[in-house]
Structures are given as C-alpha cells and as structure tokens.
Design brief:
Strand content of chain A: 15-25%
Largest sheet of chain A: 6 strands, antiparallel
Order of helices and strands of chain A: HHEEEEEHEHHHHHH
Distance between the termini of chain A: 43 Å
Structural class of chain A: alpha+beta
Shape of chain A: globular
Oligomer: homodimer
Number of helices of chain A: 9
DNA sequence: TCAAAATAGTGATGTAGATCACATTCGCTC
DNA sequence: GAGCGAATGTGATCTACATCACTATTTTGA
C-alpha cells in the first residue's frame, strides 16, 4: 500500500530513506472506520495513538453539567488519541468519534516506545511533534483568554477552512465554547 | 555545586548514573536573577529554555486591548521559556518576569539539540516531558471550557497551594482570566 | 522618611452570551 | 416518498462577569 503522505508527514521533522520508512511502517497497523463509529470511548483503556490518513474525527466529552465540549478535530495528517489516558496507561475521559468514513494508522504504546528505542530519528520525531502540539494548543488557550466568541469563530474558519461545511453546527459550537444558539446568531 | 534536585527532576523520566548526570550538567549554564528582573522580554530572540532551581517567575503578555494575561507560573523544578519563539527560532511574544529572586539553569537551543543527539536518554526525557506538558496544559484549557471563574480559582489553589500569598492578586486574576475586581469578590 | 505609585476592596451599572421556548427544515429509515 | 427525530434559526429573558468610579492601604525609591 502506498503511504507517501505518511512518509511526507514524518519528513516534516526528520529525513528518511525508503528502507527506514518501510521499517518504521511495520510498527503500525491499519484501520478503517465508518461514519459515526467510535475510535475511543470514555472509560476504555487507551492503548493506541492514531494518525489520520483520511476522513474526519473529533474528540470530546460531556461535563458534569451535561454540556458537551470538543477538544480536537482531526483531519488528514493529524494525530489523535486521548493523550492523558494514553501516556498514563489509564482510562479515557474523551470519546473519539468519526464524523466521516475514515482510515487511520494505529500505534500501540509498547510499539511506540520500542520504535523510539529502535529508531533514534523517531524519538526525535515524537519529541519535536510534541513540542509543536504544545505550542499549537497554547495558541488555542490564548484565544480562549483573549478573544470573544465571534473572533474565535473567525479564527477557527481560518485554521480549518471548509470545516463549517463538514461538521454539524452544534459540534462547532462545542469546540468554540459557546451554545449552538449563540453560534447561529454569528452567521 | 550540588544540584541534586535537578538530577531528581531528570530521574522522574529517566535513570542516570552520577557520571551521566555530571556530563549532562555541562550543557547548562547558571544564572541568578533579582526580583522584578526580566528573564525574557517580548520581541527579543529566544535562544534558551530555563529550568527553575529556586524562586518564582511568570510568563505573560499584554493583548491588543491592553489587557494582561498570564500564561504560566514557574516555581522550583519547572521549565520555562517562550516555547513558540524558542522552537521556531523567533522573537518572543511573552515577557518572563521574576516575582522573587530566582536561580535558573539555562540551556540554549543548539546545546539542547546537541544534548539530545549525544545522550539518547535526554532525547527521551524531553519527549516525555513535552507529552506531560501537553496534557497539563490541556487540563488548563478544559478548566477554561468547563468551569466558571470561581471554580478555576479553587483549582489554582489546589495546584499551587501557597501561591496566593506569594503573588499579587492582579497577576492571579490575569492567570485565571478575570479582572482583579472579580477575583477580589471571591475572597 | 515621606511622597508617589502600585495594590486592593467595594458599590453601581452595562453587556456578551446562556437559557428557555418554539418554529422550521433537513436527512434518514421503513 | 411518507413520517419522525435531529439539526437549525430566532425571539424573550436571565446572569456572570466586565467596566467604571471611588476609597483605603501597602510598597517603593529618592
């Protein structure tokens, strides 16, 4: 199977020969999911992290007051899992749901640690990737601190153009931290 | 100089012999700062990340409306820098200010990359540390999404007990994303 | 050591967005 | 392609917190 886009993704941070890539690829398994299937459900043990080859997924949860919150959208080339649960070998807080038919590459915790030990470059890849994810998430935190809802909406539109078309409005609203009524009034 | 607490900190994720630690230590320099000195000022190039040996620092910035926001408190055993600027070799958005006399260990970008290349365990250390930082910051984002100000105040008190005594109220308020008037009314 | 500045508390009023209630339209399933 | 539940839009009202205005206290530095 041709997974040039995955190799491209890795090469954003490290450079690889074909042989190295093929070897790395053996640590991953492949999975297809249908729209409205769950990749992870809350309270399950989380043993994998996923790289999205195609499709669209969201991670989210329902808080103690019954309100839904969206943590992350994942489109092509994104990684997704419940990180807290994955790194701490514990149970998921979040649900991860397919909004469209999707294909993902799966990497177990054990394989990931082994991959980092076996292939030095991949240790570096995950380190750099983690640093970038931190910065990206920090930017999102900043928008929560500095912007009002209307501005956050515009920022989301900039970051993922076309997402509005693909995602139910109530999920967009839950990502932005407003009610669907408020979001509706922005449009 | 005895830096047992730094070795302890590293050993949260990796195990080291005395020799290994001493070698790693040579990549860092030492710096003392006085209260109200800046470690980083916005618009400066950021070439170092810092591990706090003692004292108390905050990173923050002033937004386009002139409102101040606090990103992070750093006490003993915390790392602090403007990560966006540090990883992207660019200029700081944040100021990092000493609220108390402080001592830090300094690691330049070049030395950090070299350290990761020279000492495999340190590549792993920074990878794991970055993953944990991501999760910790995600928890903070969640409190912004799910809790009201009063609850966020209680959560901050839990995470850093005693901080209220050490930090001006307007800085606490800016960390929590409320005005100092609102914070004052919680107490 | 003393004046100026920064910090902190509190009341009155304004406002973004939540909540509730209901109408309309869209998209499945049989 | 009829029928039913989910998704969406919109008005009326409510509320947490911001903003403004003023006073009291503490810190600082000349």
């Amino acid at each position: 199977m041709n997974e040039a886009s995955f190799q491209h993704h890795l090469e954003k941070y490290i450079s690889l020969t074909e042989q190295e890539f093929d070897f790395i690829r053996t640590y991953f398994t492949h999975k297809k999911l249908k729209r409205s299937e769950y990749l992870i459900q809350s309270d399950q043990l989380v043993n994998h992290t996923y790289w999205v080859k195609s499709g669209l997924l969201v991670s989210g949860f329902t808080d103690s007051k019954g309100k839904e919150h969206i943590i992350q959208f994942a489109i092509e080339n994104c990684w997704i899992t419940d990180q807290q649960a994955f790194y701490n070998r514990s149970k998921a807080t979040f649900n991860i749901l397919c909004l469209e038919d999707s294909e993902v590459l799966c990497l177990s915790y054990q394989k990931r640690e082994k991959l980092c030990a076996d292939v030095y470059k991949m240790n570096t890849f995950f380190r750099k990737k983690a640093n970038d994810s931190f910065v990206k998430q920090q930017r999102r935190l900043l928008t929560y601190m500095t912007s009002e809802a209307k501005e956050r909406y515009n920022l989301l539109m900039q970051e993922y153009p076309g997402l509005v078309q693909r995602v139910p409005k109530k999920i967009l609203a839950a990502y932005m931290g407003v009610t669907r009524e408020t979001l509706s009034r922005f449009r």
